Each structure stands twice: as structure tokens, then as C-alpha cells.
Design the sequence.
């Protein structure tokens, strides 16, 4: 950390050193100072995605989903090919219940990298919550096709099968059996 501070003494406008200092401070559990360092890096290089991503990660860790989303959106805007930033934004949209944004982001991610399995898990989880069981099963199946040996594969297989079963069930009715035959 001393070498980073020394670097900043020589060139206070060196955004990379501010960002690296933020990472070092985070590892020392000095989150407020880390946040200030990330903000300095973002101010010095406003189109560099990494400081925005770092701030978003801090906010997510603190449980501030709503605060993290704008930073994730900036990180994606400034580094649109970053799967890590996009996946975090996708997940944040799902957790925030922003269905239209989630589906748009998933579409962009699939166009960028159709083989990134976690995209399909987020989609499946979203569809499952929406009670769109057929699409949930399909997304879970795609996840399993791409990641058959991930640690959660057994659980995902169970969820896929449950969603397939729910997709084929008829919707319950309040009508008597004889009324439904008409």
C-alpha cells in the first residue's frame, strides 16, 4: 500500500493507482477509504468501467442493490464486452424485479457469448418466479448443457424437472368436473 501512496504522491492523477489503492483498502476492511479511492479513479477516468464495477460490488456486498444498479449500468456502458459486469447487472435486475431490463440484458449477453451458462441460470430463475415453467425448464436445460458439472448441477436438474412437470399441468379450475366436459 505504501508503494501505491508513493505513486500517487508522484502523480495524483494516476487513476490506476487510485483503483489499486481501493482494492488494497478493501482487503484491509477499510471500506469507506476504499470507496473514496474508487470514486477518485472514476472521477479521473470517467469512461473506465473498473472503478464503477468496484463501487457496485461494495454496494452489493453491503446489501444496497438499488444503489449498485446505476454503477453496474455505467460499468457495462463503458465496457460492453465485459461478461462479468453484464452478469452482475443481469443478476441485480433479477433481484430488483426489473423483468424487462433483465430480459434485454440477457438477450445482449447471449448475443455476446451464447455459451456463458450463468446467463441461463438467471433467466431460468426469473422465469420460474414468473411461473413461466416451460421457459424456466428450457433455460435450466440450456444451463445444464453448458455446465453439466458445476457444483449446483444436481439441484438445477431437479429444478428443471420440476418446472417441466409444472409446465405440463393443467391450470386448476373452480368448475365442477361435469361443467368442464361441456
Sequence:
Amino acid at each position: 500500500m505504501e508503494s501505491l501512496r508513493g505513486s500517487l504522491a508522484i502523480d495524483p492523477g494516476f487513476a490506476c493507482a487510485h483503483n489499486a489503492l481501493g482494492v488494497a483498502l478493501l482487503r484491509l476492511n477499510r471500506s469507506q477509504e476504499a470507496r473514496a479511492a474508487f470514486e477518485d479513479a472514476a472521477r479521473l477516468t470517467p469512461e473506465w468501467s473498473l472503478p464503477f464495477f468496484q463501487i457496485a460490488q461494495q454496494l452489493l456486498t453491503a446489501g444496497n442493490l438499488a444503489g449498485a444498479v446505476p454503477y453496474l449500468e455505467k460499468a457495462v456502458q463503458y465496457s460492453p464486452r465485459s461478461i462479468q459486469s453484464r452478469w452482475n447487472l443481469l443478476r441485480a435486475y433479477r433481484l430488483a424485479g426489473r423483468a424487462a431490463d433483465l430480459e434485454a440484458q440477457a438477450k445482449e449477453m447471449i448475443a455476446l457469448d451464447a455459451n456463458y451458462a450463468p446467463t441461463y441460470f438467471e433467466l431460468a430463475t426469473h422465469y420460474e418466479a414468473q411461473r413461466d415453467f416451460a421457459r424456466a425448464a428450457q433455460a435450466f436445460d440450456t444451463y445444464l448443457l453448458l455446465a453439466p458439472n458445476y457444483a449446483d448441477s444436481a439441484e438445477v436438474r431437479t429444478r428443471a424437472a420440476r418446472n417441466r412437470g409444472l409446465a405440463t399441468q393443467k391450470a386448476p379450475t373452480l368448475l365442477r368436473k361435469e361443467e368442464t366436459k361441456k
Notes: Residues 152 and 162 are 15 Å apart (CA to CA).
